[in-house]
Amino acid sequence: MAVFHIVLVEPQIPQNTGNIGRLCVATDSILHLIHPLGFSTTQKELKRAGLDYWQYLQVYEWENLASFWATYTPNERHFFFSTKAQQIYYEADFSQGGFLYFGREDAGLNQDILQVNQKQVYKLPMKEGVRSINLATSVGAALYEGVRQSQIHKQWRE
Predict the structure, then answer these.
(1) Residue 82, annotated ligand binder?
(2) CB 98 within 8 A of CB 120
(3) Is 103 annotated as a binding residue?
(4) Rounded alpha-carbon distances, angstroms, from residue 39 to 11, 12, 42, 89, 93
(5) Average pLDDT, whole number, for the chain?
(6) Per the UniProt entry, what are the Gene Ontology biological process annotations, in alphabetical order (predicted)?
(7) What is the CATH number of domain 3-155?
(8) Alpha helix locations (H) across 28-122?
(9) Is the model's pTM score more than 0.85?
(10) CB-count exposure of residue 88 (10 Å: 0-12, 13-18, 19+)
């Protein structure tokens, strides 16, 4: 069965992370938080955005990206998201699940990460002149495209 891992690299806004946590619970996905974080995971805004779902969330915190990659070595199932990408997210093959990486709300993923993994970097299409969309919205769009491609939703009550 396809499993999705949402990897938030140095997220800064607790409400975004809380909303993404809810998405993870709704899709049976796993959330990975890569430090440093711009907030405490005990912060009320995080829990409020996650509502009462936070207790059901599979969430793991990592000291840094290197420690995460020591456990989950990047391969073709690792997908990186950036407004600077050339490929559109629905061109990616998410059918077997994978790791979906998103960077800081104010800076995105580090350019070095994007360069090293350039064949696996995708964007959500946006009208010209729009700088970016909300992190939780981006995660939701990419994750549900993965759900659609993997067809894991067919086992859920629709």
Answers:
(1) no
(2) no
(3) yes
(4) 8, 6, 8, 29, 33
(5) 90
(6) wobble position ribose methylation
(7) 3.40.1280.10
(8) 44-50, 65-71, 111-116
(9) yes
(10) exposed
Q: What is the pLDDT of residues 119-141, one digit of tens each?
A: 999 999 999 888 889 999 999 99
114 is an annotated ligand-binding site residue: no
| Residue given tokens 């990419």 in the structure block | 142
Task: Report residue 98: phi and psi, to 5°.
Answer: 150, -170
CA distances from 154 to 27, 148, 158 (A): 12, 9, 8
Neighbours of 112 (CB within 10 A): 8
123 residue type, one letter: K
Q: Is the N-terminal amide bond of 36 cis, ω within 30° of 0?
A: yes
Collapsed DSSP state (helix, strand, coil) of residue 99: strand
β-strand partners of 97: 3
Residue spans of the domains in the chain: they are 3-155
